[in-house]
């Protein structure tokens, strides 16, 4: 018996040791897997954070570049108007440039160069800029060969005025015949881009770098004054970054184990949508993994405790349960603090999970949402076609769908622009749907504002030249079908320059605003009144009749009403006298596409010249049959 007991003990202790070793090995493997998965989550969140920062910076930088381009476009339009009026007047051009610079304090200068690259007008720069020739510059050559006016951005280059690093934004302008007449440029110093990427909280080792299409450094945050990687114009990039660029990727993520300063980082690369620039946003592993390092310490402590009390199965189970509860709490905290609204629906359309942000977006409480039926939930997404396409595509096997649509805030509330990301998955064989909801109302509003700035004159809120061209194309197409005459009236205010010279541009602006108001009250709903720039307006009339004489008579009656309405004096205030607003009108009649667009404007311009030559305060109709103004 003693020997049997000894045998049992000799067998039992090795067995217990083996079980304890196996239990500890199992626990160690579990925590290793858990920490690996947790690190992957930290990495994914870091990549998502850098991608979101890059997307936000893309919007900010692209918006700034588009604002600068709008200024250049307005200057180009003004220069073309002056050319048509007889030539560029230096004083008037300087005054116009100065006003534009006042509205864009971030621009140090605006410069105008002729078709040979010689300086014409400079505002906000040293006199040395007058003698600089830019004919050999790449952006000048691109502007010279363009067939249509487009935004031009140069790569990083040194200014010939003060040798500083700049990015040049350029716009071409043409003469009265449509031939290249020169460029207007805005040199943008690298300090401007540094300000756009400054102030982001990227941790102690984070970085943002902006480079041009040739990978030359434009700006970096934070700066590295004592490192070649921080020098403006350097092309020191990592191999991973170079691979993404060589592959033509628009966006991408990579891990840079030996970045600037010897810091390990995760990096998101993005090509800007409004400029040929490259943006790289990086977060240091030592920063974004700080929470994970805490998890490692916690896991090590748990393993040690488990090794001490591993014989107590109950304690082991308790600790396992505690770890599960902590993981569940952590997931709930992530869901609660998410910036997007999140919901999870089962296959019958019932809500299983909903976070606070979704309740805020929908204007409903959690209890109201959970109590809703499937049909009531679908009423919050009124776009039936988008809804049907989404769920059909998910059931067909698409893993993730992203779309922009409208949702209703409350059961009878306002509509809101959102971006939905919908994915399908299964739990225990049952289909479920994960939906994240992001409010994009502000982004939509900014896009609408940019479109308004592109198509409306900012002073009078009338359609500008671009929108007028669109309306003229529609009028040509409608006239081609109906064979009814249309008319283009070109209106120019008499003695407007004298008003500006005597009482200043503020008085001139008040007069232009009042003229626009009076014209809008007189024209028909089917017609268009637009401002071409300066004191030049255009009225587009349609449906004037099927023969030339009838159309001319109808257009003449409208022109006479305009003259009568505009002749009433305008109160300018600020000590200026009431100004008699007299004008001259030139009218060109056309039907269908019998006349080219350029010919229509030329005929109206000829008739306007005849009206002004006749003493002003009247109108002339260009007579198509005799090719003489009547």
Describe the structure.
- With 630 residues, this protein is an alpha+beta fold.
- Helices cover 47% and strands 23% of the residues.
- The strands form 4 sheets. Strands 1, 2, 3, 4, 5 and 6 form a 6-stranded antiparallel β-sheet that branches.
- A hairpin with a 2-residue loop joins β18 and β19.
- The N terminus and C terminus are likely disordered.
Q: What is this structure's SSE topology?
A:
Layout (H helix, E strand, L loop, with lengths): L1 H83 L5 H14 L6 E5 L4 E5 L14 H8 L6 E2 L3 E2 L6 E10 L5 E10 H7 L10 E6 L4 E5 L17 H8 L4 E6 L8 E7 L5 E8 H4 L1 H20 L3 H24 L4 E6 L4 E4 L1 H7 L3 H6 L2 H6 L4 H12 L4 E9 L6 E13 L2 E10 L1 H15 L9 H18 L3 E8 L2 H27 L5 E6 L2 E6 L6 H20 L15 E8 L6 H17 L4 E6 L4 E2 L1
Parallel strand pairs: 20-21
Antiparallel strand pairs: 1-2, 1-6, 3-5, 4-5, 5-6, 7-8, 7-11, 9-10, 10-11, 12-13, 12-16, 14-15, 15-16, 17-19, 17-20, 18-19, 21-22
